[in-house]
Design goal:
Blueprint: E1 5-12, E2 19-26, H1 34-42, H2 45-74
Antiparallel strand pairs: 1-2
GO cellular component, one term: cell surface
InterPro entries: SMIM1
GO molecular function, one term: protein homodimerization activity
């Protein structure tokens, strides 16, 4: 069970000596969309950790290959 989201609104008026703070609880009974469900599944738990590790490894190799190719053409003998 998740706690309901709450919204706090703070307004301060220059003319008045009182600050006004109002709080309203926002509860949503809507079901999450398909993208939100997929995102929640892929970004949390053990699967989320595995996806982040896999993304890091892929990013490392992309940067490595780009650096290798760039270095090859920059230091190529003429």
């Amino acid at each position: 069970m998740q706690p309901p989201d709450s919204s706090v609104h703070y307004s301060r008026w220059d003319d008045s000596s009182q600050d006004q703070v109002s709080m309203a609880a926002v509860s949503s009974t809507e079901e999450p969309s398909c993208c939100q469900r997929i995102s929640r599944k892929l970004c949390s738990g053990k699967l989320g950790v595995a996806m982040k590790v896999l993304g890091g490894v892929v990013l490392f190799w992309v940067i490595f290959i780009l650096g290798y190719v760039t270095g090859y053409y920059v230091h190529k003998c003429k």
